[in-house]
Specification:
The complex is a heterotrimer of chains A (323), B (272) and C (225). Chain B has 272 residues and is mostly helical. Chain B folds into two domains: 39 residues; 220 residues, MetI-like fold, CATH 1.10.3720. Chain B is built from twelve helices and no strands. Chain B is flat, with a radius of gyration of 24 Å. Helices cover 32% and strands 27% of the residues of chain C. The chains are: A alpha/beta (323), B mainly alpha (272), C alpha/beta (225). Chains B and C meet through helix 8 and helix 9 of B and strand 7, helix 2 and helix 4 of C.
Chain lengths: 323, 272, 225
């Protein structure tokens, strides 16, 4: 009896030992792609607080600026599907501001390249950059900041010749529907008691916002205005959609986001305050294929799609400007 | 079916070897990532980062808020757990379940829920904001988020201890002339102190590491709401060295917490 | 003098008892496990409330369901030694004995003399500074007894006080109990399921079955069964 139980224990130990070795071995050598999923957009149920129906363009901002209206859908012919021999899923690390357009892009990519699919990992460009630098797997990297793109290029992360400008975006101020704090011009942002949400300076949108505020201070307002605006900031969010959420919930009086976020939102979600182009900061998005990609063919196909008429049309529909 | 002595020896050796591999693998998996934090920096860089005002303020804010949160949880939670354990009341089972809720709720959801209630557009926050005491985006919000996510750790421990405590001690004390309050402070708490402290230490650790609910409900403002975990995340892109420095501090505190819990590990409550 | 008449619906049967104990007298409640003996003690102590009943200790009413009187446990002036002694393990013997006196806010001098006296009477002076968790069963029993009597109660109740004691300890504890009760001239109720213990200690015996007294009388007259 004693021999039997001993044998059992040895047997179990051997099996577990082998399983463990197998797992460790797989973990060390495997190159499994990061589980990339499109971040579920944070649209809380009872989002829009009861407010008088205020169309964004009715809140006439003092500064002369083009009224913000989604571009009329241009009738395009469905692009002819392309059949290529490349295979595989495309894992795309993309700046968080592409959250709204990502599902449309995925659908149209699959239409243009039947049998192919793309999976987005959306986060602040700064977070994605760090992940890539520490070995995260991705095929495509869409950056919202030239500075980060250059950093990755210098680090040799991109495949040669694949870094291309993708789109551009201006900064805009969004306000909760109904504009409860009556922000009618950038001057109002410095009023005491106003709550502002901004991205952290590490986030591309945050750097852009700081530049915009500096420009406005230099051209129209003064340094005191700049200081007062920063005093009114109650939170530095770690991604651009984070700011949009806080504004949508009505928890802050104003937030700095990309124009695309304001344009792509359902009408009535936000009131807006545009910033004159001369003081604004034009953010450039770039796209590139990563050297570490295992599906370079599919990755290049995806890049082609993004730069093609179909991809650019999607971006335009969601408020991005052409590169 | 007698196996030869040599065969048994081989089997035993293999079994021991497998056990050793298992122990080594599990230990290394847990400890190597933490060790690598230390290896990624030098003492000079680490100390330089500590001098960074943002790092210092995150450290001070984290420690202060976590201590306050712990105090709230212990002072309110201990009597609550005691009353809950010693009495039957309608809805007791429901309360039991509700206490565990924050444990399974994703922190971001908890943060969103707190924001929707206490934010200035929220049911309660509306009035708070109007009377000039906004709740969201303040240090108070940090404390509230920490209390929300960390309290189950303490309450479950306290409940378990009080349930195990033999009621004979309390009954005897009452017959000797002690009021229920005196019984609680002179008999119940001293007899469960070891377990309560280890529960408190775990709760402190959880409050210190809180991230998701904090950033949702309290936001991220250096000096006001930027706790250490937030500072780590924010600095990942910008000041990597600061991120590492803060992470090391968090690891050191967590390690100290674990050692303390181990030393106080008298979870056993005395039986009459 | 203790006078008690209590009724309470328990899970398996209805408890219905009425008895009285004179000063300096030991009444033994005898019966099998589950007969309701401990419940009776708990009712008198106030740890449980009767459905119906009246309890009077030393002339004052501590419980009267009709008029809604129910004196809280800590004010009933009762010494109660549980079946498992429940000495506070985190306190020393001295602190244990002093517990009731401290709870009643007695003067430190009084506490000192009382504790000292009881340490001698129970012959445990050498254990004074020992933490109660390190005591043997018999020692714990003595400490519990001293602790209960140090507050000068008007009634002493003992629940199976000799269980878990060896023969010598049992003999000495029985002697101590008899001595204390007669010295202090207080009524005493003792619960046991062993006829031998009942005979040795009790002046009068009540046999309880299913919550009711089936036989009551002086010890000498207890039928040999």
């Amino acid at each position: 009896m004693k021999h039997q139980s001993e044998r059992k224990i040895s047997g179990i130990a051997i099996i577990w030992g082998m399983l463990l070795m197998a797992v460790l071995f797989a973990g060390c050598t495997g190159n499994s792609p990061q589980p990339a999923a499109t971040a579920a957009p944070l649209t809380p149920a009872a989002a829009t607080p009861a407010a008088p129906a205020a169309h964004p363009s009715a809140q006439a901002p003092v500064t002369a600026a083009p009224t913000l209206v989604p571009p009329a859908p241009v009738a395009t012919t469905t692009p002819a599907p392309v059949y290529t021999s490349s295979e595989g899923n495309v894992v795309a690390f993309a700046a968080a501001s592409l959250k709204g357009v990502s599902s449309q892009l995925a659908a149209d990519y699959a239409k243009m390249y039947p049998g192919h699919s793309v999976v987005f990992n959306l986060d602040g460009t700064q977070a994605l950059k760090t992940q890539v630098q520490n070995g995260a797997y991705a095929d495509i990297f869409i950056s919202a900041s030239n500075a980060y793109t250059n950093e990755l290029t210098k680090g040799g992360y991109f495949a040669d010749g694949t870094v291309k400008p993708l789109a551009t975006n201006y900064i805009i101020v969004i306000l909760p529907a109904g504009n409860p704090a009556s922000i009618r011009s950038p001057a109002d942002l410095a009023k005491p008691g106003v709550k502002i949400a901004m991205e952290d300076k590490a986030v591309p949108a945050g750097t852009a916002t700081c530049a915009v505020l500096a420009n406005l201070a230099k051209s129209t307002y003064n340094a005191d205005w700049n200081t007062s605006v920063f005093k009114n900031v109650v939170t530095y969010e770690t991604s651009e959609p984070g700011v949009a959420t806080k504004v949508q919930l009505g928890e802050v009086d104003a937030g700095f986001v990309y124009e695309s976020t304001a344009i792509a939102a359902k009408p009535g979600t936000y009131a807006t305050l545009t910033i004159p182009k001369k003081d604004n900061y034009l953010q450039t998005y770039t796209i590139g294929v990563l050297k570490g990609s295992q599906s370079t063919g599919a990755a290049r196909d995806f890049e082609n799609f993004m730069l093609s008429g179909a991809g650019q049309q999607d971006l335009k529909e969601y408020g991005f400007r052409p590169a | 079916m007698a196996s030869s002595p040599a065969g048994t020896d081989i089997r035993r050796t293999i079994a021991l070897a497998c056990a050793a591999v298992l122990v080594a693998a599990v230990t290394l998996y847990l400890v190597l990532p933490i060790l690598s934090l230390f290896l990624r920096t030098t003492p000079e860089i680490f100390l330089a980062s500590l001098a960074d005002p943002d790092v210092k303020s995150a450290l001070a804010l984290s420690l202060t808020t976590s201590v306050i949160s712990l105090a709230i949880i212990v002072l309110a939670g201990t009597p609550f757990a005691y009353v809950h354990c010693r009495h039957r009341y309608p809805g007791k089972v429901l309360v039991d379940t509700i206490i565990d809720l924050p444990l399974v709720l994703p922190p971001a959801v908890a943060g969103l829920a707190l924001l929707v209630l206490y934010g200035r557009a929220g049911l309660v926050g509306k009035y708070a904001s109007m009377s000039g005491f906004p709740i969201a985006f303040t240090t108070l919000a940090v404390i509230m988020a920490q209390v929300f996510v960390a309290s189950p750790f303490y309450l479950r421990q306290a409940k378990s201890l009080f349930d195990q405590l033999d009621p004979a001690y309390e009954q005897t004390a009452r017959t000797l002339g002690a009021s229920p309050a005196r019984v609680f402070t002179t008999v119940v708490v001293p007899l469960t102190a070891g377990g309560l402290v280890s529960g408190a230490v775990m709760t402190f650790g959880r409050a210190l590491g809180e991230f998701g609910a904090t950033i949702m409900f309290a936001g991220n403002l250096p000096g006001v709401t930027q706790t250490m975990p937030l500072a780590v995340y924010v600095n990942l892109a910008g000041d990597f060295n600061a991120a590492i420095a803060i992470s090391i501090i968090l690891v050191a505190i967590s390690f100290a917490i674990m050692v303390t819990v181990r030393l106080l590990a008298t979870n056993e409550v005395p039986h009459a | 003098m203790l006078e008690a008449a209590v009724k309470k619906q328990l899970r398996d049967f209805a408890l219905d008892l009425s008895f009285r104990v004179g000063d300096g007298e030991i009444l033994v409640l005898m019966g099998d496990n589950g007969a309701g003996k401990s419940t009776t003690l708990n009712l008198v102590a106030g740890l449980v409330c009767p459905d119906n009943g009246k309890i009077r200790i030393n002339g004052s009413v501590v419980c009267d369901t009709e008029s809604g009187i129910s004196v809280p446990v800590e004010r009933r002036q009762i010494g109660y030694v549980f079946q498992r002694p429940a000495v506070f393990p985190h306190l020393t013997v001295k602190e244990n004995i002093a517990f009731g006196l401290v709870a009643r806010h007695c003067a430190p001098a009084t506490i000192g003399t009382q504790v000292s006296g009881w340490l001698d009477r129970m012959n445990i002076r050498d254990l004074a500074g020992v933490k109660a968790s390190g005591l043997s069963g018999g020692q714990k029993q003595r400490v519990a007894l001293a602790r209960a009597l140090a507050t000068g109660p008007s009634l002493l109740m003992l629940d199976e006080p000799f269980s878990g004691l060896d023969t010598d300890s049992r003999r000495s504890v029985k002697e101590i109990v008899r001595q204390c009760v007669s010295d202090l001239k207080i009524p005493c109720i003792m619960v046991t399921h062993r006829p031998g213990d009942a005979r040795d200690t009790g002046d009068r015996i009540c046999r309880i079955v299913q919550g009711r007294i089936v036989w009551e009388g002086p010890t000498a007259e207890l039928p040999e069964r």
